[in-house]
Amino acid sequence: MAASAGEPLRRRPRRGAAGPAGDAPDPREVRDPPAPPLRPGSFWLTRLALLRATALIYFVAFLVAYHQNKALIGDRGLLPCKLYLENVKRHFKGRINMETLSYAPTLIWFLDWSSMDSILDAFALIGLAISAFVLVTGCANMILMAAVWIIYLSLINVGQIWYSFGWESQLLETGFLAIFLCPLWTLSRLAKDTPPSFIVIWAYRWLIFRIMLGAGMIKMRGDRCWKDLTCMNYHYELIRKWGGVPGA
């Protein structure tokens, strides 16, 4: 029915707005605000994948250390790390000072050496626990990543020739950069609205460039077949010879 002349028109209530006093809006009409979209340049997914991949490599490294360190550098190992540390300490006149720590930085200096096997196992198990937690949950902070880095650094610096390969230093460098991908205290997943520092991003890019360039330079210096582009010929020839190709 049309409103009579002079009668004010009534406004229709808005959807979701409260009606008269005491009336609540229909819950079916209330909508949560949409989640903010992922900003370009946040590197959220890349950071999460890189953090978990680093934790996976740590996990494998500590698992290998747990199974092999006692036989390699333990109390009855091939090259006992206790004797190595004693020689280092003797070289610096029997004192543990900054020169000693800078020559062989390891937490073992501050521990009891009566059972080196127990120390090595404890380091490996702690590293396994931290890396497994980060790998499964995707949650980490700078404290955890720094702890696992220091533990692995402590093992490498007493591992002597067993830990003198290039991938050990590459894991330490990658793990050091991973510290700065995480928040300082908060033990939660990486926030989508807090991108990492450009310094860390370019440090990772520089690391990748050096690894790729170094791998290529080693091959070029090692054998002429890399310059002649014939190394793959020998590679596939060996596969066929040893039965790698069915029916060959």
From TrEMBL:
Protein topology in the membrane: Multi-pass membrane protein
Give its localization.
Endoplasmic reticulum membrane
Tell me which residues make up the Lipase maturation factor 1/2 N-terminal domain: 163-237
Keyword annotations from UniProtKB, A to Z? Endoplasmic reticulum, Membrane, Transmembrane, Transmembrane helix
- State where it is primarily located: endoplasmic reticulum
UniProt region (Disordered), positions on chain = 1-35
Of the GO CC terms on this record, one is: endoplasmic reticulum membrane
The record's comment on protein family reads: Belongs to the lipase maturation factor family.
- List the PANTHER family hit by this protein, alphabetically: LIPASE MATURATION FACTOR, LIPASE MATURATION FACTOR 1
* Name of the protein this chain belongs to: Lipase maturation factor
Instruction: Name the species this protein comes from.
Output: Crotalus adamanteus
